[in-house]
Design a protein that fits this description.
The chain is α+β, with helices and mostly antiparallel strands. Helices cover 17% and strands 38% of the residues. The protein has four helices and nine strands, in the order ββαββββαααβββ. The chain is globular and about 40 Å long.
């Protein structure tokens, strides 16, 4: 079912269980509680320290999980190993995600082309391909619809 888990991290886990599943976090912030892993990213000749994976917590439980490329050659190969139950991962194409999840063709405009959303009941999975031609998935978010920006 969409929006349940990715990479072994399940929606509804406690923060403590999530931490033992994925390892010690680099940072947690309040309002909303967003626990994340961070890495030095190398983009356009600059180095920045950005989040690349993490989860949102509400009432002590994980409500959404987000992963994206770190733009870091040591981390990105590991991120590709995190997959949805249908085998979609960072680097998969939007066409693959649409096919595996039975989604129709992309709608017009940047938002319709760059995002594919699977919704079942109160659970959502969002695939995001931000760069033209909007095919390479660079971020995936799973969780409770409406939590942490999920549609």
């Amino acid at each position: 079912m969409p929006g349940q888990a990715i990479g072994g991290l399940k929606i509804g886990m406690t923060k403590a269980k999530a931490t033992t599943t994925w390892a010690k976090l680099d940072h947690c912030q309040d309002s909303p509680l967003w626990c994340q892993f961070r890495a030095d990213s190398h983009i356009n000749g600059f180095t920045t320290n950005n989040p690349f994976a993490g989860w949102y917590v509400k009432a002590g439980k994980v409500v959404a999980v987000e992963i994206e490329f770190a733009e870091n050659t040591a981390i990105d190969p590991k991120m590709i190993k995190l997959k949805t139950s249908k085998g979609i991962h960072l680097g998969s194409t939007m066409d693959q995600a649409r096919s595996k999840y039975g989604l129709g063709p992309a709608s017009g405009g940047e938002a319709g082309l760059s995002r594919a959303i699977v919704k079942k009941g109160t659970r959502c999975t969002l695939f995001y391909a931000p760069a033209p031609p909007y095919q390479k998935i660079e971020a995936i978010q799973v969780g409770i619809c409406g939590a942490a920006g999920l549609v």
